[in-house]
Amino acid sequence: MSARRVTPGSTLSPGGPEDVRARVVVTVLFVVVVVITPIRWWPAYVAEAILVGAAYAIGGRPWRLLLVRLAAVLPFLVLIAGSVVLSRAMQGGWELAAQILCRALLALAAMATLTVTTPFPAILTAMARLHMPDTLVSILAFMYRYIFVLGDELTRMRRAKAARTFQGDWRTELVVAAHLSGMLFVRAFERAERVYAAMCARGWTGHFYSPDVEK
User: Fold this and answer.
1) Are residues 19 and 95 located together in one domain of the fold?
2) Are 100 and 81 in contact (CB under 8 A)?
3) How far apart are CA 184 and CA 85, in angstroms?
4) CA angle (108 as vertex; 46, 39 as ends), nearest 5
5) What is the pLDDT of residues 16-64, one digit of tens each?
6) Which residue range(s) make up the domain with 170?
7) Can you give the C-alpha Rg of the chain in angstroms?
8) What is the pTM of this model?
9) Which residues face 209 on adjacent strands?
10) Does residue 108 sit in the same domain as residue 36?
11) What whole-number distance in Å separates Cα of residue 21 and Cα of residue 131?
12) DSSP character at residue 205
């Protein structure tokens, strides 16, 4: 009997640990291939998009999940691409912007396909068994755990705001949203400090351990 380092919530998908590790490796390799694909190879980008779509279709999840996740990051990608166009308008800026946009969308679609079709705790466990950096796995594990806590905190803040103020115009609502975001950041930072202090007081060494039988 020995202690084997795992991530919290290490429930594997029905495919088993080897299957999840294979998914992680294939996704990483696909992202690397997308990044090194030249922008002028449009048939290659089309083929990569077809591969991502086929993998998502095999997963059997609603397409709305994938489209919503891509739509959430699309404004940021457009902003980055637009800044590239403005900075390199006379030096192939449009081509470089198209390259950034295509590569980012394909890479994000591949990662979204992995997270939508595979339980996130299983992905963390597979990353740990693939000997990825412990710091990276721990950060992702805590992010997954506390993103829901922060979501609940934001819901309580919005409920309190709605109970104490009236609905204003869009400018007022924008200012209030900015204030709520700042308050949420401060509360998240304070909560992180308290959680880390409590973990250190209980013997936190930077790794997650669980008793298991080595085979």
Assistant:
1) yes
2) yes
3) 34
4) 40
5) 566 888 888 999 999 999 888 877 777 888 888 898 888 888 888 888 8
6) 133-212
7) 21
8) 0.65
9) 5
10) yes
11) 11
12) -
